[in-house]
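[agent] plan:
  1. take the single chain provided in the ticket
  2. run structure prediction with default settings
  3. attach structure tokens to the ticket
  4. add a short note for the reviewer (M.T.)
[agent] executing step 1
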Amino acid sequence: MLDWLEEGSAHLLSALKKLLFWNYARNTWQWDVLCVVILIFIFLTPKSWFENSERRGYLAHQSPAVTAVLVGAELIENAQDKAEVEQVVRTLTGRNDVQVLKVRKVVDKDGKTRGYEVDIR
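[agent] step 2 finished; step 3 output follows
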């Protein structure tokens, strides 16, 4: 009886090892079963399993994308004048619907103004 049990466990271990490391050739019935299982998973899995409700809600309330544009210091005389900054950015980007959100001064290591980083929408 013990020999039969050891032989059965050896076969079971061998089958599990083959299944885990997938030692089956493409033209075997095991390969066909695997393909059918994959197709069943693809076509019968509910979409809700792959949705993230937190992300979907977050994206629904998100404002349009903000883009940063680098503008040389020689192009802007007064960074406080948003109308002037908008006009320069419109000229550079070729877009008429530019809205300036924020202007940040870009300085070098000596403290000299090199340009402006402008957030636009």
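[agent] step 4 note for reviewer: The mean pLDDT is 83.
[agent] ticket updated
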